[in-house]
Amino acid sequence: MHTTVNWTSPINWLIALVLVALLVIQVWLIARNASLSTTRKWIRGILNGLLWLLLVGYFLQIQWPVDRASTHALLIGDEVPSTFSRQIKDSLHLSKSFTSRNFKPNYDSVTLIGQQFPAELLTQLSDTRIRWVPYNAPDALQAIHWKGIVRQGEIQRVTGSVTSSQAQWLRLRFGNKTLDSLSLHEGVNPFAFQFPAFGKGHSQVELLLGGTARSTTPLDTIRFFTRPTKPLTIQFLLSSPDFESKTLADWLGKQGHTVTVSATLSKNIGSNLTINPSGKSATKTPPDLIIAEPADAANPILRKAIADGKAVLFINLTNPETDSRAINQALGSRWQVRKFSNEPQVPVGNGLNALPYRFVDQPTQFAVSGLPIAVQRAVGRVGVSLLSETYPLSLSGDSVAYSRIWTATLARLSASNQNTVQVDAPIYSHIQQAITVNNPTNRLSALQVGQDTVRLVNSPLNENSITGQSSFVQAGWLAVQDSLALYVGGPDGAQTSDPLRDRQVVQQFLLAHQQTLLAHGSIDHTQTASLPKSTWLILVLLCFTALWVEPKVQ
Asked: Are 165 and 136 in contact (CB under 8 A)?
């Protein structure tokens, strides 16, 4: 039992003093009345005491806890079909179900079916036990994730799950070119696509569901920003340049890199050809990358480049077992290869061939996705390519495939950039999103994203990272520190209701709801009861009646 009196109010203390004085006066008047017998004094004292207790009880408004039967309701999202909601309703044996338009939040617990609910309605369920049953529409995404900002050549990974109504194909397409695909079965299918980000600036690919080009259904548009790589100084150190190295050098020059081709024509006689000489000369400045053959692995220039933290790539291998031993002995790397076929060459897709070997995994070794190329990282970076020839792609006009190969390889060979902004996509307006800056050149306190200012703090997990949280108020492409951008989806986009955004809203609400329960304990639905005012009035009138009748009774 407890009282609801506010003892911080002076008027309540005054009333309490009056009640105490009333009790003292009643007892004093009854005790000094010499005309009353002892028995009549006790009767009158009991009646006056009851009246005083009633007045005190009414003043204190005493309440006590009572048990009540728990109530449960089904709240159905606006996108859920009636057949699905009826199945859930029958399985839970519930008689009450509501939509967001006719629901009143006065239940102990609520089961949410679906994910399309007004945010205002969810906030009214903070004191309610909640269970969530997501609705997975057929031929629709359940979840999807990708990187919002990537470096040119970096592997972009698109992961998620989709509900398929039948056996069909899921494709990731750039224009008319399929980057990756997956055969789906009926039901829920997880997927993981990856491809090198070979474009620059605002980039997008489409996720399509269906069998043929005419029968495909667009599921989502993957929008991300591709950050251009910093122009590199690259030196080719070859005994006799061939068509493969000439084609690669020409492509690198067209990408804005400063390229020097050094060739040994005869003993003590060499030649240097510089492509795109507007940048720094690789002959005057230590190059960022040296491309060589295994026969030149012992060249002091290569050893110095590795000691300075630069990169070396070996191409045109002939015998990978012998070549890897020579590279290891000269540069201290740990290359190991294993032969898996007796054929002189094996196809690796896109019309490319490679030597019939594969790399043995090493702790500091990273493969270029989908290609027989790997890079080992220590003080410097040593790469090895088992590809036979790539120039036929360029000659055939497939410049996109050629660029994908070497852009992805350069990304593996490049050093880690400073001020690298990382953010998981998709990003939606008015939903909290984390942003991380890796290897900052100075300790930034804020990051400007569109009209929003994201406050940054040191990451507790990585001393080389700073992180921040923001709920973006704008939708569309937003500038990040003038040189980058990220895409924010929202009501201002192509559609007013995004099922993935609705699902994320419910997930964040449930997470906040669970954290509230952990902080404040379980929700207490105990009810309290008190006497109604009419009962107090009747009891007081009865006491006054008894006090009026008592003197008249002889």
From this structure: no
How many other C-beta atoms are found inside a 10 Å radius of the C-beta of residue 455?
A: 13
Please give the single-letter amino acid code of residue 289: L
Give a three-class secondary structure readout of 457-493.
EECCCCCCEEEEEECCCCCEEEEECCCEEEEEECCCC
Q: 300-307 vs 320-331: helix axis angle to the nearest 10?
A: 60
Could you give the CA distance from residue 148 to residue 170 in angstroms, rounded to a whole number? 21
Amino acid at 58: Y
Q: Which CATH number does 145-227 carry?
A: 2.60.40.10
Q: Cis link prior to 118 (omega < 30° from 0)?
A: no
Burial of 357 (C-beta count, 10 Å sphere; 0-12/13-18/19+): buried
Of the candidates 414, 409, 412, 406, which has an alpha carbon nearest to the alpha carbon of residue 249? 406
CATH number at 233-413: 3.40.50
CA distance 73 to 60: 36
pLDDT of 494-543, one tens digit each?
445 678 888 888 888 888 877 776 666 555 555 666 777 788 788 888 88
350 class by beta-carbon count within 10 Å (0-12 exposed, 13-18 middle, 19+ buried): middle
CB 6 within 8 A of CB 512: no
Furthest C-alpha separation in the chain: 144
Q: How is residue 2 annotated by DSSP?
A: B
Task: Give the C-alpha separation, 482 to 200, whole Å.
Answer: 15
Q: Dihedral of CA 31/33/37/43: which sign?
A: negative
**Residue pLDDT, tens place only, 421-462:** 889 999 988 888 888 888 777 777 888 888 888 888 887 777
If you write DSSP's letter for every residue of 357-370 in order, what string do you get?
EEEPP-TTEEEPTT
Cα–Cα distances in Å, from 322 out to 45, 239, 313?
Answer: 114, 18, 17
Side-by-side strand order, sheet with 269-275: 269-275, 258-266, 233-238, 289-292, 311-314, 381-385, 373-377, 365-367
Cα(313)–Cα(323) distance, integer angstroms: 13
Amino acid at 95: S
Question: Which residues of the chain fall below pLDDT 70?
Answer: 1-2, 64-70, 211-215, 264-271, 276-285, 416-418, 491-497, 517-529, 554
CA–CA gap between residue 367 and residue 361 (Å, rounded): 9
